[in-house]
Design goal:
Layout lengths: L3 H13 L6 H8 L3 H13 L4 E4 L5 E4 L12 H17 L8 H11 L3 H13 L14 H13 L3 E6 L5 E14 L2 E8 L4 E6 L3 E6 L12 H10 L5 E8 L2 H5 L7 E5 L13 E8 L5 H8 L3 E5 L1 H19 L1
Antiparallel strand pairs: 1-2, 3-4, 3-7, 4-5, 5-6, 8-10, 8-11, 9-10
Length: 328
């Protein structure tokens, strides 16, 4: 028969699943009478776990918001999900940089795992392989991420100290619309009210963030992720490339994603063959051109290079090499 302490911890686990639990429901799941349930609830309150009583026909008990997190009770599957989430989040650059919190959090969970589950977890981690090497993530500081997230949620302006890629430092006011995680980096996108322009900033380059008084109304239907990808695709680089490619947007995006290129469908020309799909004007800005011929070849779609002329030479050279390899 379970000891009272075990039943108290089981009660905590039931309450942590959310919602209001009636006394009768808890008594049935704990295999005790309703008077004992009330005594177990008092044990949790004595331990400073914030349990509150809900009156009424559908009343019972629920966990209230307390001044500190109550002890967490995780099932085997939940513990595995938490640890794998920490591993994947660290690999993808989605965690903050403050105090190696992901490592300490994972270590705390690992310490309380039963030996049986610990061995299962080790087997998963030893067998797990990623299809891409870990990138150099740029994790933001919690002291930057949290106030900006709060400003996004409550539509409040935020003051930031920002260091640009060239080292220039500035203090700006931003009306933030959303946070976006992309390719191991965090971004905030919004409007700079001083100049009336849309701006996107990397969080790891923000040294300080402070929420200001007042509020703003974000534009209707704003898509922060699309804004960040569009901004990355139109950022200044050494080469400006313009192409015309025939195919569907999905086919083109498979090789030239939104963070790399912008697409605009062109009106059909009279008598043009559109059986292979419409034509798109594709624009991108890149530091190097040497990788583009291979991407265009992999598209396996009709394309026309509008600029730069240097890219035409690279594509012709690749075609010659492929033809030579095919003929032996």
């Amino acid at each position: 028969m379970p000891r009272p302490t075990a039943r108290v911890l089981t009660l905590l686990e039931l309450l942590q699943s959310g919602g209001v639990r009636t006394v009768a429901e808890l008594a049935d799941q704990l295999a005790v009478d309703e008077r004992t349930v009330r005594r177990y609830v008092q044990h949790l309150i004595d331990l400073e776990v914030p349990v509150e009583s809900v009156r009424g026909r559908y009343g019972g008990y629920r966990l209230a918001s307390g001044y500190r997190m109550p002890p967490l009770m995780l099932s085997d599957d939940e513990a595995l999900a938490v640890l794998l989430g920490l591993v994947a989040g660290q690999r993808a650059g989605l965690l903050t940089s403050t105090g190696a919190a992901s490592e300490t959090a994972a270590a705390k969970v690992r310490r309380v795992l039963p030996a049986r589950l610990g061995r299962r977890l080790d087997a998963v981690l030893d067998a797990l392989a990623f299809t891409a090497p870990p990138g150099e993530s740029a994790a933001p500081e919690s002291a930057v991420l949290l106030p900006i997230a709060d400003a996004v949620r409550h539509h409040r302006p935020v003051s930031i100290h920002y260091a640009a890629a060239d080292g220039r430092r500035s203090e700006r006011t931003l009306h933030p619309y959303g946070l976006v995680a992309h390719s191991g980096k965090w971004y905030v996108t919004g409007t700079d009210p001083a100049i009336g322009e849309d701006r996107t900033f990397r969080l790891d380059r923000i040294a300080d963030a402070r929420t200001l008084s007042g509020s703003f109304v974000p534009p209707a239907g704003i898509d922060p992720a699309e804004r960040v990808l569009s901004g990355l695709a139109t950022a200044p680089y050494r080469h400006e490339v313009t192409l015309r490619i025939q195919g569907t947007a999905e086919q083109i995006r498979a090789r030239l994603p939104a963070g790399l290129a912008t697409l605009a469908e062109l009106p059909p020309e009279g008598g043009a063959d559109t059986s292979a799909g419409p034509w798109f004007r594709v624009e991108l800005r890149v530091e190097r051109l040497d990788w583009l011929p291979g991407v265009l070849a992999a598209l396996d779609r009709s394309f026309v290079i509008e600029r730069p002329a240097e890219l035409r030479g690279l594509v012709a050279a690749l075609a010659d090499r492929l033809a030579g390899a095919a003929t032996g």
